[in-house]
From TrEMBL:
Glycosyltransferase recorded as keyword: no
Stored InterPro entries: Ald_DH/histidinol_DH, Ald_DH_C, Ald_DH_CS_CYS, Ald_DH_CS_GLU, Ald_DH_N, Aldehyde_DH_dom, Aldehyde_DH_Superfamily, Succ_semiAld_DH
Protein name: NAD-dependent succinate-semialdehyde dehydrogenase
SUPFAM superfamilies: ALDH-like
GO biological processes: gamma-aminobutyric acid catabolic process
Organism: Vibrio paucivorans
Annotated TM spans: none
Record-linked Pfam families: Aldedh
Domain Aldehyde dehydrogenase: 16-470
NCBIfam families according to UniProt: SSADH
Family affiliation: Belongs to the aldehyde dehydrogenase family.
Amino acid sequence: MEQVVNKSLLSFMCEESDNAIAVYNPVNEKIIGYVPSLSSADIYERIAKSKAAQVLWQQKTAAERSAVLKRWYDLMIENADDLAYIMTVEQGKPLAEAKGEVTYGAGFVQWFAEEGKRTYGDTIPTPAGNKRLMTIKQPVGVTASITPWNFPIAMLTRKAAPALAAGCSCLVKPANQTPLSAYAVAELAYQAGLPEDLLIVINSHSSVMVGEIFCNHEDIKKLSFTGSTEVGRALIKQTADTVKRTSMELGGNAPFIVFDDADVEAAVTGAVASKFRNAGQTCVCANRFYVQDDIYDSFVDKFVAAVSKLTIGNGLEPGIVVGPVIDQKAKGSVMKMVSTAIEQGATIRFGGESLPGNFVQPTVLTGVTKQMSIVQQEIFGPVAPIIRFKDEQDLIEQANDTIYGLASYFYTQNINRAFRIAEQLEYGMVGLNEGIISTEVAPFGGVKQSGFGREGAKQGIEEYMNTKYICLGGM
């Protein structure tokens, strides 16, 4: 961590001990630091502090809360290089990509600094002359968030910024693989003037224990989770006893569709960006590629040519496009999917080699059919299975044949087809002639077993507010 200029960003790090969590660099699996592991008693204490701080924060005006968030945004931008370096070292994504995430994550802070001033209520026409009806918006209270390792900064700010703008407090449990980014971003919030008990980072050797406390504690009124559908199901069940408000951004199995009237060059560019960003470790990255018969060979040839140019290595080195996957378990899972696909009849058109360490070679599979297991799995790695299709009906049935419904993508130059397909795809988000769709100004979220609730946009802050109806009588 010698290259980090702002040493205050790492002030939370502790010495090696039995009660510390080691953080590893996925490039070489060397330990880069330690963060404290909290006990259940520690977490209960922090929840109590969060509750007390939230009561005072709620009393601030929206403009006062906005001013703090705006300072937080400014500090994130000022420290973008340092934040990106921390992220690359602990997560593995290339430095330029990490800096892009810092900007993206800071965008949520900036956006919700403004949205917090627009949480309007309503005046309702009265049914009786002696009554007046109105609604107001109020913060839900103490909130908890569980964030993943693949976007350790953006996933934190996407949850914490609207919570804080609404007048809530926020406890954040980052992934144990990437806690440094979370602590560093929180430190900048404190430097911006946010009371420390309003944004508390919690780590523990037992992530299950933290999840159980978040789900069952009466004082926590809202839980936001980004992660696998399997874990999401378990959290939803646990929150039932306290009837807790939840939002879930779960697994994805995004189809990337190329029709025969598409701009093939543009589709290839979008496909590479969507599939190989963050080494394919994103919930919205293209997971299954469907290419219509007439342009199948042309698309595959151009796609393979583009993939073959992707540079693999340590994200701190210049020119690197694809970094490592997060750990050996992740690598093993991805390589197993590839080998199983081959056993089931797929062909490796490019890649497929086992590289040293946690690196997975960008891989293109052809001859893939809907019966293969890889079509129903979230790959979470740099592997692109390509499937032929004949017509729209055949395509829609295959694209929607999944329990997931997060993101989808398709390319066409036909305006009528554009509307037809966009409306028929059973996904919360659709990219039309575009491979990168995430932005703080648009609602992010899925349908089916990809979860519920929306993050970002005007909808994002509604997840952290209650609508209260007030009836004034005797007028």
